[in-house]
Design goal:
single chain; 292 residues; alpha/beta; Glutathione S-transferase Yfyf (Class Pi), Chain A, domain 2; Rossmann fold; four-stranded parallel beta sheet; 13 helices; globular
Length: 292
């Protein structure tokens, strides 16, 4: 049995709790054990452009806490994944920087050695567990449902650090969607930003980007979006609902978190997966499930 320190970050516990519960339910089915480290804090992502050193210390502290328990880190949020991976890369390349960070961590009797690996939930499924093992847990899966797979930004770039997938022509998320029996559609704006980073700074531009993605996915035949980042999900779920009330989108394309999609194919109950916690109604996706 694989075991990881589950890093939830900030957004998931506060605003997308269903990502947490759905991911845990799927991981339990796949016999992956996760532990919660209560001392985990923010990954540092919100600070990276204003105080890069403080952001790095945040990341290193979280990694050191995992190392203290001899655990690798499993992330659900792509922002957290990117931030922690980049921190580990920087500290591995720069000994002076590592010494400076460890001098700070010594105040809590922590030390960062670079032993803890950082994995994203999707790459764990695709690369470590593998399609064959996942397929054994699928009780029927989907039929005749078309999904627009959304990759997000931080898992793909910089590709030499993330090592998640080909940043120009990725297939990982498409493969995982197809594993459930659903059809992963081709759409031209698949790799474009969801617009979430601009929300609160330039709402009009943020929603313009979101509306363009939604319209393209809808025109390409999608019935649902599948995402694996809380920021992206909030943009396609909560913000899309707001856009509809303001007349800025009529796509009506619900967002389903990937562990919700996979969990349904595994026979996990919608209540366990938190389908009702999504702002936009995704209950209709269950109509496409075919039992073996």
């Amino acid at each position: 049995m694989m075991k990881f320190a589950l890093f939830l970050g900030c957004n998931i516990p506060a605003r997308v709790q269903q990502y947490d519960t759905a991911a845990r339910a799927v991981l339990a089915k796949l016999q992956v054990d996760v532990t919660d480290i209560r001392e985990f804090t923010c990954c540092g992502y919100p600070l990276k452009n204003t105080d890069s050193m403080t952001a790095l210390r945040f990341s290193a502290r979280n990694l050191a806490l995992a190392e203290k328990q001899n655990l690798d880190v499993l992330t659900l949020c792509q922002c957290c994944f990117g931030t922690l991976k980049k921190a580990a890369h920087l500290l591995g390349e720069n000994r002076r920087l590592k010494e400076e960070v460890n001098a700070f961590l010594a105040k809590e009797r922590l030390v960062y050695e670079g032993k803890a690996q950082v994995k994203h939930f999707l790459s764990l499924l695709h690369k470590d567990i593998g399609e064959a093992a996942i397929r054994e847990k699928i009780t029927g899966g989907f039929k005749d449902v078309k999904i627009a797979a959304h990759y997000g930004c931080h898992a793909l770039r910089p590709s030499d650090v993330m090592q998640f997938d080909d940043p120009v022509s990725p297939r990982l998320v498409d493969d995982l969607v197809k594993l459930t029996g659903a059809k992963s559609i081709d759409w031209s704006k698949k790799l474009e930003c969801c617009g979430a980073p601009l929300l609160g700074v330039n709402d009009d531009l943020s929603m313009t980007l979101t509306a363009a993605k939604l319209a393209d996915a809808k025109a390409s035949g999608a019935q649902f979006l599948s995402v694996a980042c809380p920021w992206c999900h909030l943009q396609f779920d909560t913000v899309q609902e707001r856009m509809e009330t303001e007349g800025k989108s009529d796509a009506n394309l619900p967002s389903i978190l990937y562990p919700q999609l996979l969990g349904l194919a595994m026979g996990i109950l919608p209540e366990t997966l938190g389908l009702s916690k999504n702002v936009k109604d995704i209950s209709g996706v269950t109509a496409f499930i075919v039992q073996e």
